[in-house]
Amino acid sequence: MSTPCLRYNESMGDPQQSFAYEQIAGEITRWIESGIFRPGDRLPSVRQLSQQKQVSITTVLTAYYLLEARGVIEARPRSGFYVRTALPAVLPEPEISAPSLDPAEVSVRDLVTMVLRDALNPRLVQLGVAYPNLALTATRKLNRIMSAIARELGEQSGVYALPAGCDALRVQIAQRMVAAGCNLTPADIIITSGCAEAITLCLRAVCRPGDIVAIESPICFDALQTLEVLGLQALEIPTHPREGISLDALRFAVEHTPVRACLVISNFNNPLGSCMPDAKKRELVALLAQHDIPLIENNIFGEIYFSGKRPTVAKAYDRKGLVMLCSSFSKDLSPGYRVGWTAPGRFAPAVEWLKYTSSLATATLPQLAIAQFLASGSYDHHLRHIRREYARNVAELSLAVTRYFPRGTRVTRPAGGFLLWVQLPEHVDSLELYRRALRAGTAITPGYIFSSPPASATATSSA
Ligand SMILES: Cc1ncc(COP(=O)(O)O)c(C=O)c1O
User: Which atom of ligand 1 is least distant from the CA of 329?
Assistant: First the structure.
């Protein structure tokens, strides 16, 4: 069969919007869907496609590998790539969550302690916590940069980066946030010890013990733990696996309950992977602004999108200074560097004071190393690589779930991040599954700990 004569050229798609390999993978998928290539057919050779599309061999190979990971095509040794004869069944996604609409005190500590203990056990296959794959971090490169800076600055590298963090890093963050739709100045940004500290400081700046915080359901257990420690009540709001928090349910909640703050992970949430569309982010900001409720927006996964362009943040639509944007470099660069940040809008003086009184400052050298990594352009190169790898890993893991999990399983289809939320049939107890998986040498996280009070038969895993 001859190759269909669609040529790749830059004008077919804004290169900023989508990588060449994704465009090619998309095009091959359309050839298969429209019957140009049928199950069992041999696809054009890598060399042929690379010449025809005027892209590199690596680009074509990456597109083929992606489709292979998605279960659409298969490689046959010394023969090439073929359309699979049995295309994978696509598992349904979980439905929108249905938490209790009453605020509840949070109590997940025992379960979280157990999961974290297993997460540190090197003998287990780690599918349970949202730690990045160490091979996909930039720790080695950052270590080299940090050593060079330490040698060059000598004792000056040991000064406190008071009060809000190193200027060099705040400038880089402000520049990067332009792509997410934000006009932040370096002075708007406060550097923190990871995203966890950013969120804690923001919650402390706007809430008092006993206050109610509206959150997505399910939500990552770190957030629940923080609420528990601060004595705050969680009001769980139904959340769609692709589009995020339900605005109708949130509207009802803020009209009937004294909600003091709202906390969301707007892009590639942990654990669902949901990503709120732009219009929804705008509406969320407007709804909360009507009631003068601060929005704490966690954007820790924002840079790990699989295709297209970087999603915007809700902060981009903030006109009243009510959105407190939080993030860190823990998922994409190095979790152990503990460098995060917040742009807390009108609450900046309170957050800066809390930062000062709780830990004085964030360590100086890791900030300088990350600032230099960003300024050199290496960050973008690194991100391009890890986005491809995580896209592939997530596709492979979903394929394995599709093949091996029982009838009635549902699985999310995230467009970024590195987490999958797997919803098992009603009769499966995820806590029991967690125990059995441990005995078999694998750590997962039971869905229980993503809700307070604990919820349903779900397990999550990271790719
Ligand atoms: C959604 C989310 N927010 C925050 C954190 C904590 O981030 P950091 O390590 O930067 O404090 C995590 C870590 O797993 C997370 O998954």
Answer: 10
